[in-house]
Amino acid sequence: MNLANDTVTLLSALTDASSLFIAAAGLTLVFGAMRIINIAHGSFYMYGAFLVAALAGTSTGARLWLALLAAPLIVAAIGGAVEVTVLRRIYKREHLVQLVATYALFLIFADLALRFWGSSPHAVSTPQLLGGTAHIGSREFPVYDLFSIGIAVAVGLGLWLLLQRTPLGWRIRAAVEDPETLAAGGTNVPILFTTVFTIGALLAGVAGALAAPLESIVPGLDASIIVTAFIVAVIGGLGSITGAALGAVLISLFNAAGVLWLPSWEPAFVYLAMIIVLAIRPWGLLGTPER
To answer: Quick check: 246 and 273 in contact, CB under 8 A?
Structure first.
């Protein structure tokens, strides 16, 4: 057993899990509070990545850092506008209507992305400040990947503090249990839902921006991330942020195992992880059965 090799393999899996967790956390937060199955969440992720590419260009300095900060905020504004203009009108409709509406938004955003950025791949450079490597025994590991892991940990802690230690978090958790009573107590539930959805879009934008220097940015990124993010959310338990973190790590470890053991079957390992978890706990690792 080579400790350096094993450590690098684990860190590589955690790097993959970092942006996946942030995207899945936004998805599960929105579903937990609003019971909205948001297919367009993948579009917000893709827009976060494309906006970084568009705003940063070939920069590796201050312009790139500004793009990494600005892109998620722009995506959050788009998400807030979507909630106010479209989703607010269908909260009381059945899930199928919500699913069709968000899928329609997904298709519209995909077409707009093709018109704005074309079908050619885009690339974002690694920030110059984080362009080096860290030594782990006899191996080296990119500093930016460590930065990605750190951002995911910070986002997870931030969400925990938000939900457990702030009045907004109390209201979000109360909305999950009983939005009618919350409204009767004087809370403006529509504004609360707009805030939650905007935070969810912001998280998707952060995930896309964070992943931009790590992967090729192409049309179709929205479809690939929404499938994997849903799998992560389902494995962890819809509505559970901690479950999303566990699900993202589990999926990334299964992917790493697939690459090492059966490369030609690697895509199937994601679904294998989901099947194993749901066979044992149909409501996910940290989810609760629907009442």
So the answer is: no
Number of domains in the chain: 1
Exposure of 140 in the CB half-sphere (CA atoms within 13 A):
6
Which residue type sits at 237? G
Q: How sure is the predictor about 56, in pLDDT bands with cuts at 50, 70 and 90? A: very high
Helices 62-85 and 189-211: angle between axes, nearest 10 degrees: 150
Full domain range(s) for residue 121: 3-222
- Which distant-in-sequence residues (6+ apart) come within 8 Å of 40 by Cβ? 82, 102, 103, 105, 106, 109
**Strands 139-142 and 133-136, how do they pair?**
antiparallel
Q: What is the C-alpha separation between 189 and 174, in angstroms, rounded?
A: 11
CA distance 11 to 20: 14
Residue 269 forms part of a structural domain: no
188 pLDDT higher than 90: no
Per-residue confidence (pLDDT) for residue 92, from 0 to 100: 76
Strand partners, 141: 134
CA 208 to chain centroid: 8
Q: Would the pTM of this model clear 0.90, i.e. be above it? A: yes
Segment 73-85 shows an average pLDDT of 97
Residue 84: how many CB atoms within 10 A of its CB? 16
Q: Which residues have CB under 8 Å from 184's CB, separation 6+? A: none
Contacts 24+ apart (CB under 8 A), 113-117: 113/43, 113/46, 113/47, 113/50, 113/219, 113/222, 114/219, 116/50, 116/54, 117/50, 117/53, 117/54, 117/219
181 within some domain: yes
Answer whether residue 285 is part of any domain.
no
pLDDT tens, residue by residue, 92-123: 788 888 889 999 999 999 999 999 999 999 99
